[in-house]
Design a protein that fits this description.
Elements: E1 6-9, E2 15-21, H1 26-54, E3 68-75, H2 84-98, E4 105-108, H3 111-121, E5 123-129, E6 140-145
Antiparallel strand pairs: 1-2, 2-3, 4-6, 5-6
Helix pairs in contact: 2-3
Length: about 150
């Protein structure tokens, strides 16, 4: 992958989890950004970067070389809520831990998934991001790894 990342899938390929490397060099980052532009279109890309700004993530620059982030999780609609995503997350985190890498945060798309992933994966609720101040439902929930 141009991002230096890794793709994990369940044996039946009904769920896929893509991790990207946070320590990628500028050349790779530019290629990765081009791929996101193709997938998300310019408005989607703006939203993607806005989420990171709003999440107020403070990452240790010295740790970036050994850090990954989950970029995309997709589970077949008929199998959502049955543990496929959790299984992929847990096994991929173990994979990175065994190799000396870490995932300092996860961006969950719903409160429900955040509530599930926190105890399962060893993360805690960091911050909810709302599209507007009057919104009651967050557009993203940031989870940070427990120390």
């Amino acid at each position: 992958m141009a991002s230096g990342g890794t793709v994990f899938a369940t044996p039946d390929q009904k769920a896929v989890l893509i991790w990207t490397w946070l320590g990628r060099d500028p050349e790779d980052t530019n290629e990765f950004k081009k791929q996101w532009h193709d997938v998300l279109d310019p408005e989607g890309v703006k939203r993607y970067y806005w989420l990171y700004d709003e999440g107020e993530l403070d990452l240790d620059p010295d740790m970036l070389e050994r850090s990954f982030e989950p970029a995309y999780l997709g589970v077949h609609p008929d199998l959502q809520g049955k543990g496929y995503g959790g299984h992929l997350f847990k096994s991929s985190l173990n994979y990175f831990d065994e190799r000396g890498y870490e995932a300092p945060y996860i961006l969950a798309s719903t409160r429900r998934s955040a509530k599930l992933y926190c105890p399962l994966l060893g993360f805690h609720h960091h911050k909810e991001v709302f599209a507007a101040e009057s919104d009651l439902i967050p557009v993203a929930v940031y989870l940070k790894k427990n120390k």
